[in-house]
Amino acid sequence: MLAVPAPAQQVLVQNGATVQVQNGATFDLQGGQMDFGLAGATARLEETSAGRVAGGTLTATRALDGPSSADPAGLGAVLSASENLGEVTVVRGHTVQTGSGNESIRRYYNLSATGTNSGLSATLTHTYHDAELNNLSESGLELFKSTDGGSTWSQEGADSRTTSPTGGNTVTLNGVESFSRWTLGSSSSPLPVELASFEASRTDAGGAAGSEEAVRLKWQTASESGNAGFRVERARARGRGSESAWTEVGFVEGGGTTSEAQSYRFTDTDLPYAADTLEYRLRQVDVGGSAQVTDPVTVARGGVSELELKQTYPNPARTRVTVRFAVPDDAGAEGDVRLRLYDVLGRQVQAVRTGAEGGRHETQLSVSDLASGVYVLRLQAGGNAQTRRLTVVK
Description:
The protein is mainly β. It is built from no helices and 33 strands. The strands form 9 sheets. It has an 8-stranded mixed β-sheet, with no helix packed on it. Strands 21, 22, 24, 25 and 26 form a 5-stranded antiparallel β-sheet that branches. A 4-stranded antiparallel β-sheet has the order 8-13-17-16, with no helix packed on it. Strand 10 and strand 11 form a beta hairpin. The protein is elongated and about 85 Å long. The N and C termini lie far apart (55 Å).
């Protein structure tokens, strides 16, 4: 029996194992990922009697050569094709694809293949559960395709449908010419273009306190219906240490209901100092309180060109201070980086840090055992040095 995962946890399913969810039960991944392995693995998902997995993503890669009704790892994207598709990766997500008041069911598939992925004539059967219908009529469901990660959609249609009281519902489309993102929407209210563009870039912070750079976000919608606004969320992507959770850093009011294109901007000036790469996403909120999340965009911060020791804070300090410093990549061996604290007579009172790789760093310094007075923090690396004064008060 699988335990309920912690939020954003990755669940790796052992080769040969079968994950069974039965009798109306819901296995909530809480934003995490369940991985059924690479090509050659035989791990599998079985959802029976209205049992289902929700709340995160499922992924699996399998080798498919001329598949006939192949369902990689049991994730519910059933494929048939005469071509050798190579290694096919299936990612199943459970967020609504939406725009301008029109919404998909609560499931989508990202499909990619290392073999033939153009000029296909494949058949795709998109499975769903009753609990994922999102108030859409089953009789009007059709397949929709996005080639840009969900920003724009094209209505592809449906050749057949099946329904089941226990959740094994399907919509099938023949003549699929390429793989990408797929979902099910209503033929009477097709998925329109919502987010026409979303991008992020580095810029100057405009003199913001404590920061010398910022990230500027720009996005555009093609039309809107009942759009209250956008919550801007940020996460550390690939910095040192573990990845951080998504944090709201701002809100931008929406245009309500309009058929005209709308442009938006937001500048994040309070960047986490030690992060080298950041991700941003938009949580679009409608006037009824429902929210949909975009795919994230990634922005890499500039490299460190010179040794830098930022002013500590708080200063004056009583118990603990935050120290931020940056080391150029060419500053020499990691062991050459030294961060020391001295009293006014030049005596070393604390070795704060010995050794650091190139990049930005943030560390905590305890001063609770130090007497009141003025101290000097000194950073040395690659033959260069910087100092900062620190006042301790009791």
